[in-house]
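Attaching the record inline, Q. Sequence:
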Amino acid sequence: MRFYAHTSENEQGRPEPEASGNWQPLSAHLRQVANMAREFGEPFGLGTEAELAGLLHDFGKYRDEFQSYLRGQRPGGRETQHAAFGAAWAIEEGRQLMLSALAVAGHHSGLHDLSDLQGLPQRQHLKLKETLPIIEERFQQELGQLPIPALPAFVQDEHSAEVAARMLFSCLVDADRLDTACWPAQPAPDKLLDAGRLLRLLEEERDHKAAAAPESSLNQLRNRIFNTCVQRGSQAQGFFSLTVPTGGGKTLSAMAFALAHAKTHSLRRIIVAIPYLSIIEQNASEYRRIMGEEVVLENHSAIAPPANQTEEEKEALELASENWDAPVIVTTSVQVLESLFAASPSRCRRLHRMASSVVIFDEVQTLPAHLLQPVFSVFRELAQNYGVSFVFSSATQPAFRKSSALPDGFSADELREIAPEPAELFRQLRRVYYHLPKSGETLDWPELAAQLAVSSQVLCVVNLTRHAVALWEELSRRLPTDQRPFHLSAGMCPQHRLDLIQEIREYLRAGRPCRVISTQLIEAGVDVDFPVVWRALGPLDSIVQVAGRCNREGRLPAGQMHVFRPADHKLPPGVYQAASDQAIVSLAGFGSEERAAEHLASDSSLFSDYFYSLYSMVNTDYGRRGETPIQDDRKHLRFREVARKARVIPDDGQPVIVRYGAGAPIVEEIRTRPLAPGQPRFTRDDLRRIQRFMVNVRNHKFNLLLGHQLIQPLLPNLNLYVLNDGLYHSDLGLMIEHRPLEDFLL
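Structure, as predicted:
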């Protein structure tokens, strides 16, 4: 009997017979996956273990039951599962190759808890004693003896074993998906980071900006910061902070440090993790313009198959899931953190590509406080054993020093500052005058809209999406139709927001009336410059960050930054609420509103004290009553528990494709294009193109859309949906949460 790994389909997506000669031989698949996984794992000492996992992952496909299933002679089900057999071989008495067993057992269904894996030999229906010798004999006839790797020396405790298991799992999943997606061709080689060439391009950009305004004191200050970052890139690998006030050119300076650091240490990749999609779109566009389209990968949409799908049903989306095979990755902080703690193959797939890299956490103050202990523990492991350097970049640098609240925090000499004299930079870059609310003073939406209407160019940031909609509607009623305000929120797809931000910049430059109502997504890193800014009372760092959109270029003696307390002062729950409360306490500690306003404008040290107080108030390791902390779950290799608890956003929903702009023709092209034999109908390139036209919808709202047939599958048997025409508002995006759906019907 010939043994196969996969069948094949023709250009119409229909199964081809075995006689076509296009089915992939099992031995070829196992060898190619093993070789690729070994290549992925070798840079950090897991090459042999990754090779073994590659050989074992489809070990169970040597069973007659699975081959009968491929030939259509029996239906799929419990009898045709295959991952358990390679895992069972790895943990047989005398081997106990737990890392490989965990990777193999979960390569379709996700990482299992160690306790579940240890119970594998007791599963009677698998008939392991009778079946494993037959499988091993068939394997050896085609591929020879299996290697027995030794545990790497750096795996010295449970937490380091947990990270090693994740890295191994990532190597296996990526190799398996790449070989399956590319067969019969070979996967394209990784694009290598040419740090020296990219650094020269960045320096040319610096020189170009300097030549455009040679007398600008702000440009001279930015150049000083940039040059210092390049010089300090030669330091030993480890942890760095980059504390630069808003407007100081952090985006390019952080990349300059990363490229200089990568050049010094021959690193393979730069990963920029950003909290808000609006900054990702802006920064990725800037990096692509300077360094080239082929260098920069923008990744912000995680599309995971539903948990209730079978292994084979999950394959189409997992083959297309993002694996970060580019020199410069611009992604979300959520994507990075959930890659570190997830159990699913699609989220873990990219993790091994973090090794030998520089990871820049932009606006690092947004790291979720309830995950800081496990996050810093994993960061230390990656820095010590996987060649990763971390840069924590912010204008409002949090207090990450070691304390009772942060036992894995940094000692005084461990977190090295890159920027020159941050306190002096803060004073030099002061550009706004703060107006703080008096005790008990509030504004309702009509009162605030009246204030905003007086200013020709003004930005207002509020805490909730429904607040943004209510204020936008109130302001729209007060303005002429040709001065309709702009609205920005997460209800818009990334391309829509990027287009609006570009339009806002053009209005500002031309001196046209420009009033913007936004949620927090604009408050950090977005390059806009308003003379007047309003911000609803919230976390202290959020207030200061949005002030960075005020008089950003220093064209005025001072911008006007108004902080107000809404009459409807509802806040997102949890840490956001706690941070907002701590902001009130911190400001009250200065006595009068005038003194507090002065400190906000000129004193960088207040942020360290603020965050130190905040972290002492909240639990920095999950901390729900009656449940174990994440660090304890990691110690006992409870991967499913860690994944459940470490979600940055508990209900991050599901993406829906909207027909905004170029999104509509891309949808039609994917649906109607002719395919060559063996070519998949949906690839990672398709995912990369379409992600700019996706909006994340909470699960209960997604189910509402699905139940009313208001979304349709992009392709048959693909768990990715397209919103029907007429449901996307040109001003507000997809606002299901606070408006009836009929409002958006044409």
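The first helix runs from residue 26 to 41. The two ends are 59 Å apart (CA to CA).

More tomorrow.
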